[in-house]
């Protein structure tokens, strides 16, 4: 697989756009969370990679359904419904507050009025969507490259997911942490940590092994692939390749995969080898 399919993602060239996109996906994700029945491990709140961008997939709307889609080819945010309504708005450089207000108005015009907290999740210093004039950048080319990277990662993660016969999440995009991931489960319950909040308690209620991709941001200054086990089994740090003791994660730079002669093979090996290090018994794992 040609590395030309894996676009460059230097954080310094698109960080402002990345931060704005994070807030935009949080708005759409919170709508999905409000309008869908709760699933274990928050699987009902996630977004999914599409041939054009990211989608909520179909969400209930009375006896009908609707979806909200990010289109990173034509750079639009598109609302579609099962009764044929289509509404769209451009993705361009503008404050989060402005996009939030326009999106809510478009939804209200077709009778959809979701109610949700406008405070972003999983951030140290969140700004309510309706008050956020700080995040206002949008580089269309950078957003397109980010989505193209998601397309490639999604493809490899789907192949990795298909090798497991047990309980496994979809390959999905978490708008809170802004990462694409898939999670396998051993079938055993996991102990709860006394300092966990409701997000962590639900996400890690069962013993799991997760792998995915994060485009960088905050303290992590480059795009990274990651893999971890929760709870981390004894000896995992010694067995697992690419283990970073400071982060308590297995980490592989996106740039290293992009530069490899066979990016797919390198990434597949990272996901499989770090999963193998978890050491689940033959009764709960599959390849």
Beta percentage is 15-25%
Whole-number mean pLDDT: 94
Whole-Å distance between the termini? 22 Å
Helix fraction bin: 25-40%
Biggest β-sheet: count, sense, barrel? 6 strands, antiparallel
Helix/strand/pairing category = alpha+beta
Shape: globular
DSSP, total strands? 12
Write down the oligomeric state.
single chain
The radius of gyration over CA amounts to: 19 Å
Helix-strand topology string: HEEEEEEHHEEHEEHEEHH
Uncertain residue ranges: none
Tally of helical runs:
7
Can you describe this structure?
The chain has 287 residues and is an alpha+beta fold. The chain is built from 7 helices and 12 strands. Strands 1, 2, 3, 4, 5 and 6 form a 6-stranded antiparallel β-sheet that branches. The chain has a 6-stranded antiparallel β-sheet with strand order 7-8-9-10-12-11. A hairpin with a 2-residue loop joins strand 3 and strand 4.
Layout: helices, strands, pairs:
Layout: H1 15-35, E1 48-49, E2 53-55, E3 59-61, E4 64-71, E5 76-81, E6 86-90, H2 96-109, H3 140-161, E7 172-174, E8 179-189, H4 198-203, E9 206-214, E10 224-230, H5 236-239, E11 243-244, E12 249-253, H6 254-259, H7 263-276
Antiparallel strand pairs: 1-2, 2-4, 3-4, 4-5, 5-6, 7-8, 8-9, 9-10, 10-12, 11-12
């Amino acid at each position: 697989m040609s590395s030309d399919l894996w676009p460059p993602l230097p954080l310094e060239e698109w960080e402002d756009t990345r931060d704005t996109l994070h807030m935009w996906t949080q708005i759409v994700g919170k709508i999905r969370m409000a309008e869908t029945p709760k699933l274990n491990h928050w699987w009902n709140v996630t977004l999914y990679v599409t041939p054009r961008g990211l989608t909520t997939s179909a969400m209930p709307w009375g006896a009908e359904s609707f979806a909200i889609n990010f289109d990173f080819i034509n750079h639009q945010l598109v609302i579609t419904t099962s009764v044929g309504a289509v509404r769209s708005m451009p993705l361009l450089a503008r404050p989060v507050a402005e996009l939030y207000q326009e999106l809510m108005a478009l939804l209200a015009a077709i009778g959809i009025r979701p109610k949700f907290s406008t405070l972003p999740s999983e951030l140290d210093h969140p700004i309510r969507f309706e008050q956020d004039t700080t995040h206002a950048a949008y580089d269309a080319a950078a957003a397109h490259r980010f989505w193209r990277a998601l397309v490639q990662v999604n493809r490899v993660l789907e192949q990795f997911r298909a090798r497991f016969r047990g309980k496994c999440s979809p390959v999905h995009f978490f708008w809170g942490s802004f990462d694409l991931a898939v999670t396998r489960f051993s079938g055993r319950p996991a102990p709860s940590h006394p300092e966990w909040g409701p997000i962590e308690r639900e996400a890690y209620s069962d013993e799991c092994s997760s792998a995915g991709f994060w485009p960088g941001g905050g303290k992590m200054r480059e795009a990274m692939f990651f893999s971890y086990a929760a709870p981390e089994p004894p000896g995992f740090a010694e067995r697992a390749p690419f283990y970073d003791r400071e982060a308590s994660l297995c980490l592989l730079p996106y740039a290293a995969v992009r530069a490899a002669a066979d990016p797919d093979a390198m990434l597949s090996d990272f996901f499989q080898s770090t999963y193998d290090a978890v050491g689940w018994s033959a009764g709960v794992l599959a390849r």
